Amino acid sequence: MADIIDGRAIAAQLDEVTKAQVDALLADGHPAPGLDVILVGNDPASEVYVRHKIRACERVGIVSRKHQLPADTSQDDLLALIATLNAKPEVHGILCQVPLPEQIDPALVLGAIAPNKDVDGFHPVNVGRLSTGTGGIVPCTPLGVMKLIASVVDDLTGKDVVVIGKSNIVGKPVANLLLDAEATVTVTHIYTHGLADICRQADIIVAAAGAPRLVRGHWVKDGAVLIDVGITRIEGEDGKTKLVGDIAFDEVQHAAAVTPVPGGVGPMTIACLLSNTVKAARVAYGIDKNVGNDFPGGPTRPMFTGSGSIPN
Ligand SMILES: Nc1nc2c(c(=O)[nH]1)N[C@@H](CN(C=O)c1ccc(C(=O)N[C@@H](CCC(=O)O)C(=O)O)cc1)CN2
Prior knowledge:
Residues 139-282 form the Tetrahydrofolate dehydrogenase/cyclohydrolase NAD(P)-binding domain. With 312 residues, the protein is an alpha/beta fold. It folds into 2 domains: 21-138 and 267-284, Rossmann fold (3-Layer(aba) Sandwich), CATH 3.40.50.10860; 152-259, Rossmann fold. It has 9 helices and 11 strands. The protein has helices spanning 7-27, 44-60, 75-86, 106-110, 124-131, 140-150, 171-180, 195-200, 265-284; strands at 3-4, 34-40, 63-69, 93-96, 160-164, 184-188, 204-207, 225-228, 232-235, 241-244, 257-258. Strands 1-11-8-7-5-6 form a 6-stranded parallel β-sheet. A 3-stranded parallel β-sheet has the order 3-2-4, with helices on both faces. Mean pLDDT is 93; it is low at 299-312. The ligand Nc1nc2c(c(=O)[nH]1)N[C@@H](CN(C=O)c1ccc(C(=O)N[C@@H](CCC(=O)O)C(=O)O)cc1)CN2 binds at residues 48-49, 95-98, 120, 140-141, 231, 243, 261-263, 266-267, 269-270.
């Protein structure tokens, strides 16, 4: 029987660490870290995620400010808000919930957030630093995936890892983090020929294709570790909406360990957001030079501060 990797429990442990860091900042006379969350429009899932983020901030003592903008907000107005937040010293983290309405170019908006406040790790500077192994803020879901893997695998050196999905938010950054940890990484996607055969070779599969039950039991070798990033809402036989992942959970009892959906990667995304916000605050207060990372192979070089040239 495969072990179930309890993302909620691991996220709760990370939140305890984050809360202790916030308490230590307050005890040293620093203001609480501040996170500004921008939500444009009324996408129901985004509203849920933003609500969870705000509540999670309260739990660990981060000051959060929500900026809810109408769905027809212009790109210029959104950019103006970001410029204002970039300039405020009490704002340590800024995130713009995606997806954004179609009149807004996400690349332009995410690239307008100051790299040192980009706690989502989506800014091209942070993406570049991750892909060159030179530090920067690591995106929350990939960071959470690495921590979940670290909970069951001590050393990734030479492990065969198959990543399914090539998104900028998950697939590509996860692949870079795994490479930094000395894994042998194969990045695939739903159009990859022979995907089942490729997956059958893997010690670890990270499924992030957004394709419900894509990874079937016979795709998985005995003793593999399975990380399911997919979250799709479907209507169950009872007519109720339920969440399903990219892995056919009921067919993988022969795996060593598997993350559930819900309760696996999702909670880690929010816990890593809080952790990134405190790391950004500690850099802003001059306590740390870099955001560091506490998983095998995590980059530890100085964080780009957004002013002047990129450090070597
Ligand atoms: N600016 C960002 N936008 C988006 C991100 C992101 O990291 N930054 N990721 C996703 C959505 N997301 C966070 O924003 C997110 C998704 C899922 C969960 C989560 O806890 N899921 C639960 C199930 C909850 C439910 O849907 O009912 C679980 O898996 O247990 C948290 C955060 C896209 N946008």
